[in-house]
Design goal:
about 25% helix, two-stranded antiparallel sheet, alpha+beta, TolA/TonB C-terminal domain, 3 helices, three-stranded antiparallel beta sheet, single chain
Length: about 160
């Protein structure tokens, strides 16, 4: 007798896992939150240039003004308040007296000296720019040698 074995070819399925609706919602929310976070981290970076802080002019060469001898010999000093514009080239422009010393010779000596000064120009966004500046110039009399002061000098004219 022959026996035949019958094999059943029943449909067998491999079980698959399916997330629940609540699980899908959590995944979607987490994904959206991640995208928003990443978008916030990179927003505006494509078009932004690094910010460079502006700078003020720096004095490079500022020799003192010559002290008018007749004022020095008479122990006369004072302070001159100047206002000027430092050009993008670092050179003073439009030097003028804002607060005079009360002695025109001191005022003029201060103006003429400051016109020869040299500055490192101020900057904006990394580029040199014109900058308005106030500069005090102080004249302090020193003890003068009697040889330097002429005894028969003309009287001071103020």
């Amino acid at each position: 007798m022959t026996s035949t074995a019958k094999t059943s070819t029943a449909n067998t399925r491999t079980p698959t896992a399916r997330p629940s609706a609540a699980g899908l919602a959590r995944i979607a929310i987490a994904g959206m939150a991640s995208l928003l976070f990443l978008a916030g981290c990179t927003q505006g970076q494509d078009n932004q240039t690094p910010q460079i802080a502006p700078t003020q002019p720096l004095a490079v060469k500022t020799p003192p003004p010559p002290y008018p001898i007749e004022l020095a010999c008479n122990n006369i000093g004072g302070q001159v308040g100047l206002i000027l514009k430092i050009g993008a080239d670092g050179l003073p422009k439009n030097v003028r007296v804002e607060d005079g010393s009360g002695h025109p010779q001191l005022d003029q000596a201060a103006v003429e000296a400051v016109k020869t000064w040299v500055f490192q120009p101020g900057t904006s966004r990394g580029q040199p720019v014109e900058t308005d500046l106030r500069v005090p110039v102080t004249f302090t009399p020193q003890d003068m040698d009697s040889d330097e002061c002429v005894q028969d000098q003309a009287p001071l004219q103020e």
